[in-house]
Amino acid sequence: MKKLLMLLVAAAFCITGHASAKNLKVGMVTDVGGVNDQSFNQSAWEGLKRAKTELGTKIAYKESKQDADYAPNLETFTDAEYDLIWGIGFLMSDAVKLTAQVNPDQKYAIIDFFYGPETPKNVACAVFQEEQPSFLVGYIAGKMTKSNKVGFVGGIKFPLIEKFEYGYMAGAKLANPEVEVIRQYAESFTDAAKGKAITNNMYQQGADIVFHAAGGVGDGVIEAAKEKKKWVIGVDKDQNYLAPDNVLTSAMKRVDNAMFDIVKQLKDGKFEGGNAVVYNLSNDGVGIAPTTKKHVSQEILAEVDGLISKIKAGEIVVPATKDTYDAFMK
Amino acid sequence: MEPIIQDLGFIIGTTLMYSTPLIFTSLGGVITERSGVINIGLEGMMYFGAFAGAAVAYFSQDPWLGLLCAALGGAFWGLIHAIACVSFSAEQIVSGIAINFLGAGSALFISRLLFDGATQTLTVARKIPQPLDFLFGEGKMFASSGFTDLVFNRFATVYLAFFLVFVVWFVLYKTQLGMRVRAVGENPEAANTLGINVTRIRYGAVIMSGFFAGLGGAAMSIAVVSRFSNTLISGHGFIALAAMIFGKWKPQGALVACLLFGAAKGLEIFLGSKGVPVAGDILAMLPYVLTIIILIGFVGKTTAPAAIGKIFDKGDH
């Protein structure tokens, strides 16, 4: 009798368990960087892998070899009736929007792009406040510079990269009003030699810390720091492994956390299309690299923690554009 | 030190850094095209060389072995191009395009196998040395970041590139082998009648072009930077090809064209750093515009080798 009861309980458990944990199927389409790009595509995939372990989500990815692959890759997942389909990166914004409009019952999400009022109702947009971690690394740079000169190397000048630029400048100036920020754009995300030349020139002009938001150009920036034995600040993820003695800190963008978060929202029935979800310090969407403590003193780190609390509390609003920067400096 | 002297040093130093990978690759272009075989696959060969150089240097911790393997890797794709174009009389442009895809594709494929799925290698422990630092100790020979340091204290690949320009010039114009290569490129039928083995000469020239392009790729991946990434070589092979044509299919001409392009890049970066009131993207066009204007204005008419791109069929002469 006891055995039978246990069996019944077990059976009941199995049935209810099965019913509540309907396994979600989530797919992502990478941009041309591919899934192991050591950057945001890889970070995105890590977020989905976490969803697999913690939420039991079924996950898959498709890599795009060229821009023309985005739409067909999205279509493939759509045909396979995935519950949620991700486009990784702003390069895919048009493809995601078009596919979403053709398939209004299918849910999509995109990283790094918000369509504003034109966002389709079945698309969730994950965007980041890159100016916040840039502000923090700028503060560290402002505190640690011995020459009162720090540098910024940007990829191509457009609003996304300007968020890094102005956040960084504001942080550096707050830490040290005397500091001069030398800025230059490479007008490229691939020309590593140009990144190296620009950075060499900055060091030659007396800068001793350079921050880059420049993709592949950053390889050259970090190389210059290694050769000249100066400090450099990485971007998007912890880049300390590229030059352990020279990468002071990195302004991190937690694409993985954003991916996981939105998958979890979907699972909990809280998925909201047609809107942007903003990731910042408050929801662990951005941050500074864990390796920062290797080179930065406890004292400065404590000040950075103070800044983080103030940003979270809304006491500091970090500027992300030239206009807000000018207002911030007044 | 006078800031203006230091600025000049920066521009010259940047010129040398930029030009070196291009010089190697355009020398490869000179060799193959003088033998009458077009090679627009230089980009793919350079790409493969950049990867092979960084991967071998990473695993062996020996940059010189990396450089050699980069050259051999490029030469392998040269061999494939030669088999297609010389033995099977394939359309040379089509084969070149295929090599561009295959060189890049195979590099990424092998990279994924060796580096845990990543399309980039890890940082090499030792890269190509700067011989002056190596011989005299770092910063001993010249004051760090002084004019002389910026101009003369370069990576070994820079000196090697200049030396190879001389070697290629010497071989092409001062040796019997070079005369044969040129003869095959101008008039293969006549050369064949005189007993020159056109097939063998062309095979050698096309393989050597891959060898040089591979060196060019490694000059990028283990000297300018210290690892390979999937965007490291983006268009360098095509710029080197253009430099070779602007240089009138001569090694010394290719050298000048590459240096000119590098100098324009250096100037662009310098002007950008001075905050000149010109939009960055306009400034970024400077190297291309300046190179075209100078070369059109001062170089004059260029003439390709007469038999270039033409299939040579030995037939029953």
Question: Layout of SSEs?
Answer:
The complex is a heterodimer of chains A (330) and B (317).
Chain A: H1 2-20, E1 25-29, H2 40-55, E2 58-62, H3 70-79, E3 84-87, H4 93-102, E4 107-111, E5 123-128, H5 131-144, E6 149-154, H6 159-175, E7 180-185, H7 192-204, E8 209-213, H8 217-228, E9 231-236, E10 247-253, H9 255-267, E11 275-279, E12 286-288, H10 292-295, H11 298-312, H12 322-329
Parallel strand pairs in A: 1-2, 1-3, 3-4, 4-5, 5-11, 6-7, 6-8, 8-9, 9-10
Antiparallel strand pairs in A: 10-12
Chain B: H1 3-34, H2 42-60, H3 63-87, H4 92-114, H5 131-136, H6 147-152, H7 156-174, H8 176-186, H9 188-193, H10 198-224, H11 236-246, H12 251-273, H13 280-298
Helix pairs in contact in B: 1-7, 1-10, 1-11, 1-12, 2-3, 2-4, 2-10, 2-11, 3-4, 3-10, 7-8, 11-12, 12-13
Structure description:
The complex is a heterodimer of chains A (330) and B (317). Residues 14-21 of chain A have low confidence and may be disordered. Chain A has 330 residues and is of the alpha/beta class. Chain A has twelve helices and twelve strands. Chain B has one domain (3-298): ABC transporter involved in vitamin B12 uptake, BtuC (Orthogonal Bundle). In chain B, 72% of the residues lie in helices and 0% in strands. Chain B is built from 13 helices and no strands. In chain B, helix 1 crosses helix 7. Chain A binds chain B through residues 33-38, 157, 182, 184-185, 187-194, 196-198, 200-205, 215-216, 219-220, 223, 226, 228, 241-243, and chain B through 6, 10, 13-14, 17-18, 112, 116-120, 123, 145, 220, 224-227, 229-232, 234, 265-266, 269-270, 272-273, 280-281, 283-284.
